[in-house]
Amino acid sequence: MNLPQCSFTIGTGSFVTEYSHSFWLALATGVLCTLIGMALVMFDCLIPEKLKAAFSVAVDSEEEEEGSCSGRGYLNSANV
């Protein structure tokens, strides 16, 4: 890249900034996460049924939801 380097001068000393490995790692991670996010949004619009199956997102009936919850909580034996 032909970008001008920033030169900071403090008194008689100066230093020049440059891109290190941390910058490139953060940039690659950001680009990868953006691409994966865009792919998920695209798949959700195009094939939502297969995406729900892949992430095991199923819509249960209301009868099963009512029967699965007993309405009782667990007591902590230390506070009894």
Characterize the structure shown.
The protein is mostly helical. It is 50% helix and 10% strand. It contains 3 helices and 2 strands. Helix 1 packs across helix 2. The longest helix has 26 residues. The termini are far apart.
Short description:
This protein is mainly alpha-helical.
Keywords for this entry:
80 residues, mainly alpha, two-stranded antiparallel sheet, 50% helix
What topology emerges from the helices and strands here?
Layout (H helix, E strand, L loop, with lengths): L6 E4 L2 E4 L4 H26 L1 H7 L7 H7 L12
Antiparallel strand pairs: 1-2
Helix pairs in contact: 1-2
Proportion of residues in extended strands: 5-15%
Cα shape: elongated
Structural class: mainly alpha
Distance between the termini: 67 Å
* Beta-strand segment tally: 2
Mean pLDDT: 78
Strand line-up across the major sheet: 1-2
Major sheet characteristics: 2 strands, antiparallel
Tally of alpha and pi helices: 3
Helix content: 40-55%
Task: Give the SSE string.
Answer: EEHHH
Q: Uncertain regions: pLDDT < 50 for 5+ in a row?
A: 63-67
Radius of gyration computed on alpha carbons: 27 Å
